[in-house]
Amino acid sequence: MSEIGVKLPSGSYSIHIKNETVSETFEKIKSFTDGRNYLAVISEKVFRLYGKSLTFNKNHIFILKDGEKEKNFSNYQKILNKALKLKLTRNSVIIAVGGGVTGDLAGFCASTYMRGIDFVQVPTTLLSCVDSSVGGKTAINTKYGKNLIGTFYQPKVVFINPVFLKTLDERQFKSGLGEVVKYAFIEKSCLCEEDFHLINLLSEKTTEIIARDEKILSKIIEICLKLKVSVVEKDEKESDLRRILNFGHTYGHAVEKITNYKKYTHGEAVIAGMKFAFELAQNKNLIDKNYKFFALDVIKKFGFLQIPNFDIEKINKIMETDKKSNGKNVIFILPTDYSSVDAFDYE
Ligand SMILES: NC(=O)c1ccc[n+]([C@@H]2O[C@H](COP(=O)([O-])OP(=O)(O)OC[C@H]3O[C@@H](n4cnc5c(N)ncnc54)[C@H](O)[C@@H]3O)[C@@H](O)[C@H]2O)c1
Predict the structure, then answer these.
(1) Is 266 noted as a catalytic residue in this protein?
(2) What distance, in Å, lies between the first and last C-alpha atoms of the chain?
(3) What is the mean pLDDT of each run of 10 residues along the chain (347 residues)?
(4) Run of H or E including 142
(5) Closest ligand 1 atom number to CA of residue 128
(6) Distance of CA 298 from the midpoint of ligand 1 (Å)
């Protein structure tokens, strides 16, 4: 079991990582809520797989259908209406059990319900374990783009149980690995006190990672979260350093949008974005050929789905509307050295 503390001006919280039964995780959630009124927002698939162990009162559950498209206004409204119907007060809790879609949406609901009530994250995908459940970004999508409506709102506690990851399908597991690889490429820029050499770990332990070895997965989750916490503690609201977490995302979000959020997973799109960034960085002489080939080789080892190149004019148009654009320029996070990145403005 490991515990990571997050210290922020807006409040501190703990991330608990433990391989245990789902019933044990449920007991922890229950003892956190401690008799308070609650609403559990649970991913449909997770409920199907683990509903027997997640014995919330069935009237207090909102089942969220699968898919990026579900992170929308309509579900936001439905969840808030259900919370009102259940008479949740400012002392109540919203619990998210699922992947990043469930966590982002439930977190947005918690942040706006009665101007903010307690929120618990129980991530069940690799992507949400290593990234989205921590750091407090909540959001919904609109037809104008992804995550354009949202808040910064930290959970009160995060319970991570890597046992959930056993039932993830291969594609979703790899999607999470996309964010893991991102942390390897940005490690030094995260300014964490500890050195992990994640890029070497990924390179040396690829087989064990792909086989979902429990020990190595717990270690990887812990490393990624320590890196993320280091960044978020220094820049909670993304005014500067936190932008590095968007490595691969500017192009990646454009890929997701151009394919209507249906064709590729978030992690697959981020991998395409990182490859694009490595090419761009080498063209601009920010990195040498050796590092680019090494990085592309690490990516290749994990056998991510290959995404074709899109019409760059169309991609550019979408990137201009990205939140990471400042209205005039597109801000790109580009590699500058081994495991280091920086932000650059491009017209
Ligand atoms: N808030 C942040 O900081 C942040 C960071 C990165 C990504 N995100 C967001 O996260 C979202 C992607 O998250 P995701 O990749 O977790 O996708 P997701 O939430 O859509 O989950 C992927 C699929 O896995 C299924 N699933 C979940 N847990 C499972 C389990 N244990 N076993 C079997 N199937 C399971 C889900 O039902 C779903 O079909 C995107 O919307 C992205 O924008 C947010």
Answers:
(1) yes
(2) 47
(3) 94 96 98 96 98 97 95 98 98 98 98 98 98 97 88 98 96 96 98 97 95 94 98 95 95 90 91 96 96 96 91 86 66 95 87
(4) strand 137-142
(5) 16
(6) 23
